[in-house]
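Supplementary Note 3. Input sequence used for the single-chain structure prediction.
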Amino acid sequence: MFRPDLDTRCEALFASDLQPSQHLLPQQIRTTVLRMIRLAGTQDCAARVAQEFGDHPDTAVPRMRWARDAVSRAYADVAAELSTRTGITRTAT
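The predicted structure, written as discrete structure tokens, is reproduced below.
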């Protein structure tokens, strides 16, 4: 099973149509990340990030900051639940 790492998840959220102004639940973020990876692929998500940093670095930086914060929060819930169920602790990737 493919388990995207933190950078891949952040790139997928960055490349999505979700906006920092939206009040999103962790499940919405996780669903969007997986949908973007499935539909666009990891390389296309990374290419979209690179293009935005090249074309609009002034807005790309805060968007990536938002994506990293949102992904970290969304997947922290999953890691905590897994730890509770299994007794195994893992760092979010």
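The first helix runs from residue 6 to 15. The chain has one domain: 6-14+25-85.
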